[in-house]
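Notes from hallway chat w/ T.B., transcribed later so I don't forget. T.B. wanted the structure written out for a chain they're using in a teaching module, and asked if we could keep both sequence and structure tokens in one place. Agreed to drop them here.
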Amino acid sequence: MYRLEVSHTAHRQIRRLPTQTQERVDSAIARLAENPRPPGAKKLTARDGYRVRVGDYRVLYQVDDGAKVVIIYRVMSRGDVYRA
């Protein structure tokens, strides 16, 4: 079982989502504690970490296997998530 950490930025991005989407994103994040690399998760090539798809949104996160921590650092629409 991995511990979940959500960055301040990601938390703020989740709060701005529609309520139904927030629930789906929260559910997807909770499942990452059980399996940080679920089927459908992709390793990012331009930066460290992984992404998981939740409808039209993407959750970007890093996994620290040594400390058993999943760090969620960005949650945005698929068109904007990889910018900056």
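Follow-up for T.B.: DSSP finds two helices and five strands in the chain. Might be a good example for the class.
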